[in-house]
Amino acid sequence: MFLLLSALLALYVSSFARATDEPPVSADEEPAPHIALLLPLESAIFGSAAEAVQQGFQAAAGPETPARPEALPVRVYGCSDERADIVALYRQAIAGGARAVVGPLTRSGATTLAAEPDIPVPTLALNAVEDPLAGQLYFFGMAAEAEARQVAQLAGQQGLRQAIVIATRAQLDKRLQSAFEEEWRSLGGATLRGVEFNGDPAVLSDISAMSDAAVFLAVDAGTARLIRPYLPNKLPVYATSQIFAGNGDSLTNYDLDGIRFVDMPWLLQADHPAVMAYPRADPPLSASHERLYALGVDAFRLIQLMLAGQVDAALPLDGVSGQIQLRGHTFQRAAIQAIFAQGSAQLPDAPAAPTPQMFPGQAAGKP
User: Fold this and answer.
1) C-alpha to C-alpha distance for 168 and 218, rounded to whole angstroms
2) What separation in angstroms does the CA of 322 have from each of 161, 234, 319?
3) N or C: fewer beta carbons within 10 Å in the chain?
4) Could you give the CA distance from residue 9 to residue 317 in angstroms, rounded to a whole number?
5) Which string of DSSP letters, residue by residue, matches 43-63?
6) What is the C-alpha separation between 272 and 239, in angstroms, rounded?
7) What is the pLDDT of residues 319-365, one digit of tens each?
8) What CA–CA distance (Å, rounded) separates 201 from 197?
9) For residues 115 and 131, is the Cβ–Cβ distance under 8 A?
């Protein structure tokens, strides 16, 4: 998944920023100190994702009030193609007085900006790039590969040393498979089998004879529902957040019973202190867009720490998207573990949810 955040520090230092509900700024906007939020809001592909990030960021910033005259306003800069537009948009924000920049959102946008030799203010990108440069450019995102590596670590902590990896030909699935297997090998684990699932359960037939192995599903929820009935209950099964579409989808969740996965506190831990501190999207978003909303919330929190020069003192940060630490110039996010039980995703030590009352003609999870 893709996100880019940039934070800028100049002579003006503030511990707050306030959001505005204004549309994206134009090139003739009067220069003034502000936080710039650069997003592909005009993109046909990434526009809805960008809107979710913007919602979360501005929800965390809160309303503009006279009681906070020192707060920096948020100016939103939209574009359609970050690869082509991000450098010009970034320069526009700097010329307009930006004291901090958040964005771009996509991996291609982050890569393009990372190639720029002149980043005059601390910038945090909401996506990752290979071999990031030093200087004032930082990175924070939702790399799916990081979750696959974390799952490998969780399985290793359970004393497991062998794994079966199931994926499809989809590009994301292959990336998850590769990341898991690489981390698994580094932990001393062995991959017994890599299975390419194409819809035919016959490729899973010999798994029932295996024992003492973890099964990693590098697939989405729909594919996992087809695979789960053919996996023996004696084998622990793991997956990433792409298997979870929210606890409102209880029919799917019943089919995934017993699978362990990792995801954000924002979706799994309603009583988390940070989760309770920030407003939810209204109307509610899909699970995938809720994750982007949560990333926007934590992006705002990180930018405030950067503006105040308090990053080192505040980390690790217990964020709504996970626990955040800084490695080099990349803010890394660790998700929390959950398990499907009786139609809902729960924390491992949570009590089992009661089975909902079923009436004739009523489907689980439906009123």
Assistant:
1) 8
2) 26, 30, 5
3) C
4) 20
5) -TTTHHHHHHHHHHHHHHH--
6) 23
7) 999 999 999 899 999 999 999 999 999 999 754 444 333 223 333 33
8) 8
9) no
Give the count of beta carbons closer than 10 Å to the beta carbon of residue 32: 12
Contacts of 176 (CB under 8 A, 6+ apart): 144, 145, 147, 148, 167, 218, 240, 242
Q: Mind listing the pLDDT tens digit for each residue in 71-105?
A: 899 999 999 999 999 999 999 999 999 999 999 99
19 Cβ contact partners less than 8 Å away, ≥ 6 residues apart: 57, 58, 59, 61, 62, 63, 64, 73, 74
Task: Tell me the two tokens of residue 238.
Answer: 């793991």
Burial class (CB in 10 A: 0-12, 13-18, 19+), 334: middle
What are 212-225's pLDDT values in tens digits?
A: 899 999 999 999 99
**Residue 162 exposure: Cα atoms within 13 Å on the Cβ side:** 8
| Surface-to-core class of residue 202, CB atoms within 10 Å of its CB (0-12 exposed, 13-18 middle, 19+ buried) | exposed
Among candidate residues 109, 108, 90, the one with its CA nearest the CA of residue 100:
90
Q: At which residue do the structure tokens 């490729």 appear? A: 203
